[in-house]
Write a structure and sequence with these properties.
It is built from ten helices and seven strands. By secondary structure, it is of the alpha+beta class. It has two domains: about 80 residues, Winged helix-like DNA-binding domain superfamily/Winged helix DNA-binding domain (Arc Repressor Mutant, subunit A, Orthogonal Bundle); about 100 residues, 2-Layer Sandwich (Beta Polymerase, domain 2), CATH 3.30.460. A four-stranded mixed beta sheet has the order 6-5-4-7. Strands 1-3-2 form a three-stranded antiparallel beta sheet. The protein is elongated, with a radius of gyration of 19 Å. The relative contact order is 0.13.
Length: about 190
């Protein structure tokens, strides 16, 4: 129980643990961890020291790696990875100020479907690419995985929808969840196209 008590005491630790559990075969430098989790390097050093003390991570020549012999791997995967990662409000909030968003659809990592080509689809107008990338990085930091995403203008999306574009069809025809939808892009029109 002492290990569990140490581990579950910090939001930064949870982000770092998700990163390692989602990328078990990778080695990360402190700089990589900071970039992926959006945590300052001092906090990372402190958290890695603690995680090393409970055998969650191991120091390698080029950085840090998940310890495949960690005895609570399955339990933490269930708790941090397999649990519901879909927070509709948080996802919508990440993209509120990127422009005039008309549609947000999630699939892939958000709904535990590894076969999806795209995890997130954003449709809108006058969208700022750097703000979109910032929103993506925030979500990636929380989830510990890289997100594959696509963006379209409303006009381009409707055109591709009507042309039965393969990427758009792959997103809509396979498991997905609509997080946000403007009136002009109703669910019915998406399913019928």
């Amino acid at each position: 129980m002492e290990i569990l008590g140490k581990i579950l005491n910090s939001p930064a630790r949870v982000k770092i643990m998700r990163l390692f559990l989602s990328n078990k075969s990778k080695v990360f430098s402190n700089k990589d961890i900071a970039g992926r989790s959006r945590i300052n390097t001092e906090t990372i050093r402190r958290e890695l020291k603690l995680l090393e003390s409970v055998d969650f991570v191991k120091k390698r020549v080029t950085g840090w790696a998940f310890n495949s012999f960690f005895k609570f791997t399955k339990e933490f995967e269930n708790l941090l990875i397999s649990s519901d990662t879909l927070d509709k409000e948080a996802i919508t909030t990440c993209f509120k100020k990127v422009g005039r968003v008309r549609l947000i659809i999630v699939s892939g990592v958000f709904i535990k479907n590894k076969a999806s080509r795209v995890d997130l689809l954003l449709v809108g107008d006058k969208m700022n690419k750097s703000k979109i990338q910032d929103g993506i990085r925030k979500i990636e930091a929380e989830m510990g995985v890289e997100i594959t995403y696509a963006t379209f203008t409303t006009k381009d999306f409707i055109y591709r929808l009507n042309m039965r574009d393969k990427l758009v069809r792959d997103i809509l025809d396979f498991p997905n969840e609509v997080i946000f939808q403007a009136k002009e892009l109703s669910t019915q029109s998406l399913k019928k196209a």
